[in-house]
Design brief:
The protein is an alpha+beta fold. The protein has nine helices and 15 strands. The chain folds into three domains: about 100 residues, Helix Hairpins; about 130 residues, Ribbon (Chaperone, DNAj Protein, Chain A), CATH 2.10.230.10; about 110 residues, Urease metallochaperone UreE, N-terminal domain (HSP40/DNAj peptide-binding domain). The chain is elongated and about 115 Å long.
Length: about 375
């Protein structure tokens, strides 16, 4: 029987890239693998056919020869022409592990991926800053307790003058592989802790861990515009790794202290400004606090409570945009709570003269009330 075209078997075009070839093989190998289709000779034959096609097309030289001369070009013209024996499915174990190693764990055995130690822990530092520091930024001095690399053994954990040896149990891979049929499980080697190496003579200072306890002082630049809860990531400034692993990172989490006068809303600041009753009625010039100092603001005649006055460029910057936001001043008209006899007399006279006048706000309220209940 004539052999089927390898591209037809895998369901791909002749110009298909390597990733498409690999994807097609994964799908078909999972579908027809004998462990998933026990006592099904047809599935076993399909699996052999798919594996043969992939073994040729995944090799650049064999693929070129096949594209030019067909099955004869790769010595697979049929029985007696050097065709491989697919009777033993175990011959595909390495190929299958190469494809599915990223699903089932690290590769084991000689030539597999070696352990590279354990990455150090990430650290978190909570930093409080004032609102003024959001405006201009600041340099914060931190003292971080952490595990750092041992200076005596330079982080190797071995006594100076000695070295780490390859683990005899996992043969330097750092992984122990357990496979039963289609399923394949890996776990760190318990002899070397996943490092792939063991220490015969330990460093006295770090007792073989390659790390010692310490405190590190550093200065961190807090840029302008930091928001409450924002994080600064300092790569490699966390704890040192174990057995030669990389260091973790340090995350500085910023907390902005509450301000007695300002509330922050993004890049804008909100401030309550009390204005005496008489000044609100007559209009006046009042002093308003800002992060840059006091400024004078004109209050229009007849200003009501709740009126917002915007001071452009008096807010704070953001990390993405260094231009400053605005400051919003909410006017609060202050009504006197204690009156002198003279003040009471004047206000009573004012009230008598105002009986015939209705303010726009009062008129609007009365109109809505009338519409609601009439």
């Amino acid at each position: 029987m004539a052999k089927r075209d390898y591209y037809e078997i895998l369901g791909i075009d002749r110009g298909a890239p390597d990733d498409a070839l690999k994807k097609a093989y994964r799908k078909l190998a999972l579908q027809f693998h004998p462990d998933r289709n026990p006592d099904d000779p047809a599935a076993e034959e399909h699996f052999k056919e798919v594996s043969e096609a992939y073994s040729v097309l995944s090799d650049p030289e064999k693929r070129r020869a096949y594209d030019r001369f067909g099955h004869q070009g790769v010595g697979m013209g049929g029985p007696g022409h050097g065709a491989p024996d697919f009777g033993d499915l175990g011959s595909f174990t390495d190929l299958f592990n190469d494809l599915f190693g990223d699903i089932f764990g690290a590769r084991g055995g000689p030539g597999g991926r070696r352990g590279h130690g354990q990455r150090g822990a990430d650290l978190r530092y909570n930093l409080e800053i004032d609102l003024h520091e959001v405006l201009d930024g600041s340099d914060a001095k931190l003292t971080i307790p952490k595990m750092r690399g041992c200076g005596t053994c330079e982080g190797s954990g071995a006594r100076p003058g000695t070295s780490r040896d390859t683990c005899s149990r996992c043969r330097g891979t750092g992984q122990m592989i357990f496979q039963q049929g289609f399923f394949r499980i890996s776990r760190p080697c318990d002899a070397c802790g996943g490092a792939g190496e063991v220490i015969q003579e330990r460093c006295r200072d770090c007792r073989g861990t390659g790390r010692v306890e310490s405190e590190q002082s550093m200065t961190v630049r807090v840029p302008p515009g930091m928001d409450d809860g924002a994080r600064l990531r300092l790569q490699g400034e966390g704890e040192a790794g174990v057995a030669g692993g990389p260091s973790g990172d340090l995350y500085v989490v910023v907390s902005v202290k509450p301000h007695p006068l300002f509330n922050r809303e993004g890049s804008d600041l909100l401030c309550e400004v009390p204005v005496p009753f008489a000044q609100a009625a007559l209009g006046a010039e009042v002093e308003v606090p800002t992060l840059d100092g006091k400024v004078k603001v004109r209050i229009p005649e007849g200003t009501q409570s709740g009126k917002m006055i915007r001071l452009r460029g008096k807010g704070v910057p953001t990390l993405s945009n260094r231009s400053r936001g605005d400051q919003l001043c909410r006017i609060f008209v202050e009504v006197p709570t204690k009156l002198t006899d003279r003040q009471r007399q004047l206000l009573e006279q004012f009230a008598e003269e105002s009986d015939t006048e209705v303010s726009p706000v009062t008129k609007g309220f009365l109109d809505k009330l009338r519409d609601l209940f009439d």
